[in-house]
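Cross-check.
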Amino acid sequence: MDFEYNGNLLEEDRINLVANEIVHKYSQISLEKAKEAAMLEGKISSSKTVNDELNRLYNIMLVNRDNKEIVLLVYKDFLNLLNNSYFDENYNNYINLVDGINDYFQNYAEFPFLSDYQ
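Predicted model, tokenized:
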């Protein structure tokens, strides 16, 4: 997925840019849902980090939590990124979130909030 520098853009332009990046990667996601996810994301004012990527993937899953097919599609990329990233303590909250998302897929729990894992 593209992560363009957007620190110089007005909020509406930044949201539109990020939403288009999301829809480009996941064509199954509506532009409306992509904009919802983009609104949850902060500006990218320097080189993207793994945290930026994980956060975007989480936000996409969060706003699409009523559609498990889309969440599963994004979750696979989320897990792939976690598995292929150099371990960093900053990822602990995302790693701990995996159990909550697995519980969501097993219908044991609602989709988890990242703030519960921080």
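The longest helix spans residues 68-83. The two ends are 25 Å apart (CA to CA). Passed to J.P. for a second look.
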